[in-house]
Each structure stands twice: as structure tokens, then as C-alpha cells.
Design brief:
Distance between the termini: 194 Å
Shape: rod-shaped
Low-confidence stretches: none
Structural class: mainly beta
Order of helices and strands: EEEEEEEEEEEEEEEEEEEE
Strand content: 25-35%
Helix content: under 10%
Largest sheet: 2 strands, antiparallel
Radius of gyration: 58 Å
Number of helices: 0
Strand order of the largest sheet: 1-2
Length: about 260
């Protein structure tokens, strides 16, 4: 009603205002007043609609959350009606994990467990913050080798070839798992010696000095490389006999009547 009824005039009625879709009713109409409409708030590009407006209330906007790029990543992007969700970046456990994939503004860091070397392995490449450790099987020495350095958690076993005694040597000490074979040159008998015991793969040749026949003997058996000379006492001519032939180094004296 825009004009009241009087004794001389009729009341005047006017159609009530209708708020547009971009407006809401901020003052309700009465029988004698028009409805008041206000423009709805428009959220900006950095805002989202926190509360939707109604026919009688305005919409409410809030600033979209900004993730801390050093500690967070965007786990859910914002929409016109929802806020951005930020989550804490995963931290790989020191000594147990390494980083497979670094985090990005929209993805978390991916961690994986470090490989555990077994008792039969050693760590050939140490782990870093972004790489796994490499385990390598410990070397096994062959039957022709011995261990020169024991393996450790971070180093391999070292093996060396076992020495082979030559034909002019004998084995003084056998090889073990951790020591080399010891070879020594075989003794060579001199011209003044003979061989008492021949050599074997594990024993030396034994030499002995040749007997020197004294002056009252002669060499009845000559020495060889493996036997000693034999000395025999010289004959003494009996009474009534004379020395028909004198003794030599290798013969007895000859007596005759």
C-alpha cells in the first residue's frame, strides 16, 4: 500500500519488489513498505564460499588457505565452495628409510625402507638420504686360494692364490683357510756329502758328510750319491813277511814271504 484509504480516495497498492538471483532480502517488506534487496557478495579468486547465501542472508567468503611450501603439500585442491587442504610432508626415518621421490607442492614425499644386508653380504655402497644401500655377496675363496683379509660389514673378503712349490722346493707348512703354503728350496748335497734320505713333497733331502778314511785305512767301498764310503784297516805284514805291494787310497798293502 503506497497510499492509504481516505474518505475521499481509495488506497493505492503497488506490486512488491522481488530480489534478483544476485541479491538477497536485507529488509523484509510490510503492508506499507517495500522489500529492500542487497547485492550478494562475490567471492574473489583467492576466496571460497564458506557459507552459501539464502533469500534473506548474504553469502560468506573466506580466504583460501596457503600451504607452507617448506613443510606442507596440497593434499586437496580448493573448489568454489571448499578450502584447500594442506598436509604435513612425510619425513623419512633416519637410518631406516630413504627418499624415493621428493615432495612437490601437490604430492607428498615417498619413503622406502633401506635394504638390510644379510650375514653373507657386505655393504658395497652406503645409503644416502635419497639412495638405498647396495648389498653384495661376500666372496668365497676357492680351493686354490686363502683368505688374506676377513670380510667386514662394509668390505669384502680378500683372497690370494696359494703358492705352488716348484720341483726344486718342498712344502714346509701346509696352506690353511687364512695362511699361505710355505715352500723352501730343497737342500743340495755337496761333493763331500751323500744323501741319507731323499726329498718328498713335504720333506727336505737329508745329507750327511762323507767319512774321511784315516791314514791306517783304505777306501774299500767308494762313496756314491746315496751311500757313504767304507774304510777298512790296512793289513799289517806278519813276522817273516815283507810288503810286496804298498797300500793305496783304494787298495790294501800286499804281503809276501
Amino acid at each position: 500500500e503506497t497510499a492509504s484509504l481516505t474518505p475521499t480516495s481509495n488506497r493505492v497498492c503497488t506490486p512488491q519488489r522481488i530480489c534478483s538471483v544476485d541479491a538477497y532480502e536485507d529488509v523484509a517488506p510490510t503492508y506499507t513498505s517495500v522489500r529492500s534487496c542487497a547485492q550478494r557478495t562475490a567471492c574473489t579468486a583467492v576466496q571460497y564460499v564458506r557459507v552459501q547465501g539464502t533469500t534473506t542472508s548474504d553469502r560468506q567468503c573466506s580466504v583460501i588457505t596457503t600451504c607452507n611450501t617448506t613443510m606442507q603439500y596440497e593434499s586437496m585442491p580448493p573448489t568454489p565452495t571448499t578450502d584447500r587442504a594442506c598436509s604435513a610432508v612425510s619425513v623419512c626415518t633416519d637410518g631406516a628409510q630413504y627418499e624415493v621421490q621428493p615432495f612437490t607442492p601437490i604430492a607428498d614425499r615417498i619413503c622406502a625402507g633401506l635394504t638390510r644386508c644379510t650375514a653373507n653380504d657386505f655393504t658395497s655402497t652406503s645409503a644416502t638420504a635419497t639412495t638405498d644401500r647396495t648389498c653384495t655377496p661376500v666372496r668365497t675363496c676357492s680351493v686354490a686360494e686363502y683368505e688374506t683379509a676377513s670380510p667386514t660389514p662394509t668390505s669384502d673378503r680378500h683372497c690370494s692364490s696359494i703358492d705352488v712349490c716348484s720341483s726344486q722346493e718342498y712344502e714346509l707348512m701346509s696352506a690353511t683357510l687364512t695362511s699361505n703354503r710355505v715352500c723352501l728350496p730343497r737342500t743340495r748335497c755337496t761333493q763331500w756329502q751323500f744323501m741319507v734320505s731323499p726329498p718328498s713333497p713335504t720333506s727336505d733331502r737329508v745329507c750327511q758328510n762323507l767319512t774321511i778314511c784315516p791314514s791306517n785305512t783304505f777306501e774299500s767301498t767308494q762313496a756314491s750319491s746315496t751311500t757313504d764310503r767304507r774304510c777298512t784297516p790296512l793289513s799289517t805284514c806278519a813276522r817273516g813277511y815283507f810288503e810286496a805291494q804298498p797300500a793305496t787310497t783304494f787298495t790294501d798293502r800286499v804281503c809276501a814271504e
